[in-house]
Specification:
By secondary structure, the protein is an alpha/beta fold. The chain folds into two domains: 17-268, Rossmann fold (3-Layer(aba) Sandwich); 284-447, Glycogen Phosphorylase B (Rossmann fold), CATH 3.40.50.2000. 45% of the residues lie in helices and 13% in strands. It is built from 18 helices and 13 strands. It has a seven-stranded parallel beta sheet, with helices on both faces. The two termini are 15 Å apart. The structure holds 2-acetamido-2-deoxy-beta-D-glucopyranose (NAG) (4 copies). One 2-acetamido-2-deoxy-beta-D-glucopyranose is lined by residues 309, 338. One 2-acetamido-2-deoxy-beta-D-glucopyranose binds at residues 413, 416, 420-421, 424. Belongs to the UDP-glycosyltransferase family. InterPro entries: UDP-glycosyltransferase (IPR050271), UDP_glucos_trans (IPR002213). This is UDP-glycosyltransferase UGT5. GO terms for molecular function: UDP-glycosyltransferase activity.
């Protein structure tokens, strides 16, 4: 209720005719978070808003209305504190989910600490620069919201996943573990009694870590940083500022989200990043290579966080052997970050960066083997490609379970990657038309929106 009033009040107080000055802070080292932010902020900049964009990555093309501030030295600073990014592949086998979650919380706290102390941001605090709006990334870095309180501006949060505990808390979105599967588990909305029990326990655990570990850690950073600038003021508890967020944009869509209640200031904008990068095209020789494959092309990528060459070598050679068996029939494009692929079959091309959307858009591409990141799955559905999902971390088990329940792909468990299981999964998908039919049906639903998701995101932000 109060959030709604706040939206209305702020709407009345913003002069809609002028471009706004927006402070955007995206400290995450996950590339997909940056990409999502970049798409939204670039569109805002195109419409005449003036953006200051803090992030670890760089925009490939400069924009007149965006001043970029690169956060340097994050990696080194976190490493000094023993908080390196986990190797998601080995962590999956060696670490419990609980252990991974606490690591993520500690790491995100150190990250927000570093970001708020970053000299350029400290300058902003000292001079109390004038801004109209704060936009932050949802990456367990809620202490950043202190910026909104200090600068006395409304805040918008961009969440690169579907709804989760941290985003729900901001807007008071309900979570009922009896039918809302937790993002860190691989369940669907139809859970057995045992699964519901596990789902409830994990949700309870999340709540406990939120209240007794996450929040106090963020609160400490928030108090340390903002007390210095407001020594005479009684800082409100961080949780009040978290509850004061005006709008949360979640990167999801009804077909990627099981039926669940969503409050009105949480807005689903999944798919906004698709076709946003007009400069992304396939080089002519790769286009010809795809075009000339007699039985089509398989595209494989494990996303930006995990490198394919970090897979155990027996698994890599299992893939290589299977791909080799398609010589003369299918061709393979592999996002492969290393210079060499041992025993490289000549129907496979590898490259460290690939224009993923352009490849998926090509009609001769028949199958996408993916880690099951949400943005990749959205692209697969958009371009009507069935998938094989190799879930590795985060919400990927959850996404994999959803792919199977929607019938447009199969999950291949990391514990069970062998020549047989890969061959099995590929054959199943290429020979059984149901996968293709299902993804085509979903694609229609995904594109059937009353308003383009990027326009909806920008509209909602301008509304605030
Ligand atoms: C930048 O903003 C101005 C208005 O402040 C607008 O006229 C212009 O088109 C924007 N520039 C770009 C490259 O979109
Ligand atoms: C909540 O946000 C509004 C602006 O959106 C601001 O005026 C108000 O002071 C904020 N309250 C707290 C407790 O941060
Ligand atoms: C490529 O792989 C080899 C052997 O696995 C490794 O020693 C090397 O560091 C890798 N190179 C890159 C750029 O990752
Ligand atoms: C491993 O893969 C094979 C072949 O696809 C399959 O029959 C088997 O059920 C899988 N095992 C597990 C534990 O998933």
């Amino acid at each position: 209720m109060t959030n709604f009033k706040i939206i209305l009040i702020t709407l009345l107080s913003v002069e809609l005719a002028n471009g706004a000055k927006i402070l955007a802070v995206f400290p995450s080292d996950v590339k997909s978070h940056f990409v999502l932010g970049k798409v939204v902020l670039t569109e805002l900049a195109n419409r005449g808003h003036e953006i200051t964009f803090f992030s670890q990555f760089s925009l490939r093309e400069k924009h007149k209305n965006i001043s970029e501030i690169r956060l340097a030295g994050v990696k080194e600073s976190l490493a000094e504190k023993g908080l390196e990014e986990e190797n998601h592949l080995t962590a999956r086998n060696e670490r419990s989910k609980i252990n991974s979650l606490t690591h993520l919380i500690n790491r995100a706290t150190a990250l927000v600490d570093y970001t708020l102390d970053y000299p350029v941001l400290q300058d902003t605090l000292q001079k109390k620069d004038e801004y109209d709006l704060l936009i932050i990334d949802m990456y367990l870095t809620d202490a950043l919201l202190g910026l909104a309180y200090y600068l006395d501006i409304p805040s918008v949060v961009l969440c690169s996943s579907g709804t989760n505990k941290w985003a729900n808390e901001m807007v008071g979105n309900p979570h009922n573990p009896s039918y809302n599967p937790n993002q860190f588990l691989g369940f669907t909305d139809k859970m057995s009694i045992k699964q519901r029990l596990i789902n409830s326990l994990v949700s309870a655990f999340e709540k406990i870590t939120y209240n007794y570990m996450y929040l106090p850690a963020q609160e400490m950073v928030y108090r340390r940083v903002f007390k210095a600038y407001l020594p005479d003021k009684n800082l409100p508890p961080l949780i009040n500022i978290i509850h004061n967020v005006s709008l949360v944009l979640v990167n999801t869509h009804p077909i990627f989200q099981y039926p669940r209640p969503i409050v009105p200031n949480m807005v689903q904008v999944g798919g906004l990043h698709i076709n946003s990068d007009k400069s992304e095209t396939i080089a002519a020789e790769i286009f010809d290579y795809i075009q000339a494959a007699p039985d089509g092309v398989i595209y494989i990528s494990l996303g930006s966080q995990v490198k394919s060459h970090d897979l155990p070598s027996d698994q890599i050679s299992a893939f290589v052997k299977v791909f080799k068996s398609y010589i003369g029939k299918m061709r393979i494009i592999w996002k492969w970050e290393n210079a060499t692929l041992i025993d490289h079959p000549y129907n496979v091309i590898v490259g460290p960066t690939v224009p993923q959307q352009a490849i998926l858009a090509h009609q001769n591409v028949k199958l996408f083997i993916t880690n099951g990141g949400l943005m990749s799955l959205m692209e697969a559905v958009y371009f009507e490609k069935p998938v094989i999902v190799l879930p590795i971390f985060g919400d990927q088990d959850f996404n994999g379970a959803q792919v199977e329940s929607n019938g447009y792909g199969r999950v291949l468990s990391l514990q069970n990657i062998t020549e047989d299981s890969i061959q099995d999964a590929i054959n199943e998908i290429l020979t059984n038309q149901n996968y293709l039919n299902n993804v085509k049906r979903l694609s229609k639903l995904f594109k059937d929106n009353p308003i383009n998701p990027l326009d909806y995101a920008v509209y909602s932000i301008e509304y605030v």
